[in-house]
Automatic annotation (TrEMBL):
Signal peptide: none annotated. It comes from the Bacteria. Belongs to the ROK (NagC/XylR) family. This is Glucokinase. It holds the Pfam family ROK.
Length: 331
C-alpha cells in the first residue's frame, strides 16, 4: 500500500491542511477552513483539525493509500518533548492541552510540531521563494513578528528550540511596551495591530471620522492611494525592519531574506524604505544578498509542516517539488 503524509497549519483564524503522496511525488491542493471556537480544547481539536484530516484520509483510502505521519505548524508555544501546548495567547483554552498525545492516539502515526515561522521558512525553502538556496531567513510581519532560519539547508532552531525571535529584540530604548514584557521590541513597532493602532490614533488627532472601523488592509489601500499618514507609518516600519535585517545579515551572512505576513501587503511602500535602509547599513561591506516576498503566501506553514514530518520519516530527505501558487480550496 502506498503511503501519504499530512501537513497542518493551525492559526487563530484559519486551519490549512495539505498532503503529499509518495507514489505520485505530488503535493495536493491546500484545504482551508475557518477556525471554530468552543472554549473546549478537545472539541476544538476535533472540529478544526480532525474533521479536516479525516476528510483527506478518507479520500486517500479510496485510492488505497495509508497515512504515515502528521506535521503541525503552530502559533502556540509548546513543549517539544511532551508535545503539550504551554500557552497560546490567542486561544488560552488550549493551554496545557496534550495535543501530540491526542493526535497520536487517534491516528496511530508519528506527529511532529514546529513553530509557525519555522514551518513557513521550511515551506518557502522546500517549494517557494527559497527553493535552491542553502541559507535564508523567513521573516513574517503580521499579528506578531517572527523569523525562521534555514542554515546549510537545515532548519536552525537553537539550543532551546526558539532561535530567530527577532520580534522580541529591542530596537529602541524606552520604546512602546511589548506583550513579552519588555519595551522597544521590533514587534511593538512594526506588527500589524501596532501599525493599525498608530494610524487610528493619528487620524483621530486629525479629527477624521470612521477610522475605528478600519483594518490593516484598509490602511494598506489608503497608503497605496496616497494617504500621507498611512505612507509614513509604513515607511517607519520599513526603516526598523531594514535595520534588523541588516543586523541579521551581518551576523549570519545570509544570502536571501523572504518576507511574508499581512504587513508585506503594503508592497513597495514598505519595501523601498526597507531596502534603502539596508543599502545604507551594508554599503561598506560586500554581501551578495536580496530581499524578496514569499511565494507561497499563507500556505507556507502547512507545506513546511508537511516537509517536517516527511524528512523525519525518510532519513532527512526533502520533498523535491514546487507548489503551485493559489492551489487552495475551502471546506
Amino acid at each position: 500500500m502506498n503511503s501519504f503524509f499530512i501537513g497542518v497549519d493551525v492559526g487563530g483564524t484559519y486551519v490549512r491542511i495539505v498532503s503529499y503522496d509518495e507514489s505520485t511525488n505530488g503535493i495536493g491542493d491546500m484545504h482551508k477552513a475557518l477556525f471554530k471556537k468552543f472554549n473546549d480544547p478537545s472539541k476544538e481539536v476535533h472540529e478544526n483539525l480532525c474533521v479536516l484530516m479525516d476528510s483527506v484520509i478518507k479520500e486517500k483510502s479510496l485510492e488505497n493509500k495509508e497515512l504515515r505521519g502528521i506535521g503541525l505548524s503552530l502559533a502556540a508555544l509548546f513543549d517539544r518533548r511532551s508535545g503539550a501546548i504551554v500557552t497560546w495567547p490567542n486561544n488560552r483554552a488550549w493551554n496545557g492541552f496534550p495535543l501530540r498525545s491526542y493526535l497520536m492516539e487517534r491516528y496511530n502515526v508519528p506527529v511532529l510540531f514546529e513553530d509557525d515561522a519555522n514551518s513557513a521558512a521550511l515551506g518557502e525553502h522546500l517549494a517557494g521563494a527559497g527553493k535552491g538556496y542553502s541559507d535564508l531567513a523567513y521573516v513574517t510581519i503580521s499579528t506578531g513578528v517572527g523569523c525562521g532560519l534555514i542554515l546549510n539547508n537545515s532548519l536552525h532552531i537553537g539550543s532551546n528550540g526558539w532561535a530567530g525571535e527577532i520580534g522580541h529584540i529591542r530596537v529602541i530604548e524606552d520604546g512602546p511596551d511589548c506583550k513579552c514584557g519588555m519595551n522597544g521590541c521590533l514587534q511593538s513597532l512594526v506588527s500589524g495591530p501596532i501599525l493599525l493602532q498608530k494610524f487610528v490614533d493619528l487620524k483621530m488627532l486629525e479629527r477624521s471620522t470612521a477610522v475605528s472601523e478600519l483594518d490593516l488592509k484598509d490602511v494598506v489601500s489608503l497608503a497605496a492611494n496616497g494617504d500621507a499618514v498611512a505612507r509614513d507609518i509604513f515607511k517607519q516600519a520599513g526603516v526598523h525592519l531594514g535595520k534588523m535585517i541588516g543586523s541579521m545579515i551581518m551576523l549570519l551572512d545570509i544570502s536571501l531574506i523572504v518576507l511574508g505576513g499581512g504587513v508585506t501587503g503594503a508592497g513597495d511602500i514598505l519595501l523601498e524604505p526597507l531596502n534603502d535602509t539596508l543599502k545604507g547599513y551594508l554599503k561598506y561591506v560586500q554581501r551578495d544578498m536580496k530581499v524578496i516576498e514569499a511565494r507561497l503566501g499563507d500556505n507556507s506553514g502547512a507545506i513546511g509542516a508537511l516537509n517536517l514530518i516527511y524528512k523525519q520519516l525518510n532519513d532527512g530527505n526533502s520533498i523535491e517539488v514546487f507548489y503551485p501558487k493559489g492551489s487552495e480550496s475551502n471546506r
